[in-house]
Amino acid sequence: MIAAPLPNRWPQVSCWNRLKVSPLSVRAALVGLAYFATALAGIELTRSAGNVAAVWPANAIVLAVLVHTGLREWKFLLAAAAAANIAANLVFGNSLPVAAGLCAANIVEIIVGATLVRLLLGHRLGPVSVSQFIQIFSLAGLIAPVFGALLGASVIAYAFGTPYVSVWVTWWVADAMGVLIFGPAFFLLDREFIRHHAPGVRLAEACATIVGTAAACGAIFVYASLPGLFIIPILMMWSALRFGLSMTSVVGVGVTVVVIGLTVNGMGVVAQMPGLDGGDQIIFLQLLLAGSILPSLLVASALGERDRTNGILSKRSRAIEISNRRLAIFAEQRETLLAELQHRVKNSLQVVVSLLNIRADEVRSPPARTALSEAAHGISAMALIYRFLYTGAHVDRVDLAAYLPELVTNLEHVHRTARRGVTIEVSTDAITVPLEVATPLALIVNELLTNAIKHGGGDGEARIRVDASRAGEDNDICLLRVSDNGQGLGEGIDLEKPESTGFEIVQSLVYQIGGRIAARNEGGAMFELSFPLPDSGARSLWGESR
Amino acid sequence: MKSVLIVEDEALVALDMKRAVMGDGYEVVGIADTCEDALAIAAMTRPSIILLDYNLAGPLNGATVARELASTGAQIVFVTAHLEHVIQEFRQQCAGFLAKPVLRDELRQLLADLEKEHAAA
After folding, report:
1. Would you give the DSSP letter of residue A127?
2. Taking the model in full, what pTM does it have?
3. Quick check: B19 and A358 CB within 8 A?
4. ipTM of the assembly?
5. Residue B82 touches chain A, beta carbons under 8 Å
6. Which long-range contacts link A332-340 to residues 24+ away (Cβ below 8 Å)?
7. Number of H-type helices and E-type strands within chain B
8. Cβ of B88 under 8 Å from any chain A Cβ?
9. Which of A353, A390, A391 has the CB atom closest to B101's CB atom?
10. What CA–CA distance (Å, rounded) separates A127 from A148?
């Protein structure tokens, strides 16, 4: 079965999608109810510990819904939240003006937080990176509560006579904690998370971790002394390492509920700490929760980012691997095709050589037999190129340092039987030439060597030298010399107007590769061929007039 | 007189080889264009030298029967455009290798060298 990929739009990756597709009235009612319930819990804490809650999760819920909702619907959802806020305050006996004032402070805070998050990150909140995590919770958790605290502290200070600064600080910390601890659960609990964890053993393990961690924290909180509280961050970190950001956030919510619930009921190490009044207890609790939960959330976020990055890299790596395999197959096919082509060329040339040999058998005239034989040698020289093309690193180029010695060996081998002795020395620089140069060059060298073997050495052993080197200012010219120890060239020989067919062939081929050839006597005949090396950018040695 | 079996599916090439070796005094016991024919002729005539091509008519190639042909006591000379394929595998079993296109002089020279080696042994 192939899982359908999730489209790249937030409604498909977020559980808020379910909320979004339901009617607006239903969504507003749900938001109102959720806000009311969490506000009751928050206000309950307010009654137990000064006038400000230790943690205020209600705003985090609405903020998360707004971030995932279109701007046009904000006013309805905010109205539901406002109504719930006022209702919760009225239930706890606050006057309507106080309830309205506190409601205004909370609504302003929610609007500021949701707007900042939407402006900076848009509404496509899927899996977030560490930097996005920090941005979201800095904007919604640290900056937005500043505005809420300004208004809310004013209302409380005016209504109850509580010192403004301490109320402001407690409000700000409580709302920041609400977003930081409860926020990830609401912001980031998406379908990916649910699909990843449910159903199965892992979901059971996750549920057990939530309950177990909360229960363990409760036990530690009640029975352990103050240093025992350091176990709580370790338990939180376990969730971060094992389950990722969303689940860590849920575990953090569980721990928060347990710890605050116990303190409110006068149980646990904080409630029984001597010398701490309600306000101090709140600040201590806030610090404890922040220190225990926030590091684990950051670690979970970083691990999630690492896993996503690894996933992307792994997918890319697989794609590259597949691509490489395809390339290898193509390369292999190309190699096979090329080898087959080379093989057919060589076989065809063999048929031509054989045909020439068979025809030569019928010919009685020695010059005619020689001509046919030399033609066969020329074809053999050309065929030799294909052997080096195929085995060389570059399939369309020939390395003269490899090719020339082999050609010379073949000719030496063939002519040794016909003459007294033939010795050919070869010296070449590292020069490679493309096929279109290699083929005529092979024929030129074959002709020059055949000529040198014929005339070199007189009646003694023919000693021939072949030197190929780079020349020119930019090493862009190949200089090829073929010299022998024969009688030398006769007077008045003009290579520009060759009289023998051999020289005419040479002259034509030299012209074809854009080169020049000169001949002189130096202890025998010496032919000097120069031609441009195509890759060097050199042009024909014949100039523009060619 | 040494006898030669030519295993080659190109008729003109086989004819050229035949003339070349006969010109040097060898007896050509047959020309085969498939592996099956080569094995049959070799079994019947027991040639001293077999000139073996790699690509042949029929489903099998020269490499598949090279060892079997060598087991008849003949000296195997691969004559092929596929030299790179066979030279590694049959370096031990074969007496010589020639890359196509082969010149008559090259073939004659190789056969002469083999004869010298044989005489020396």
Report:
1. S
2. 0.55
3. yes
4. 0.90
5. yes
6. A338/A390, A338/A395, A339/A390
7. 5, 5
8. no
9. A353
10. 28
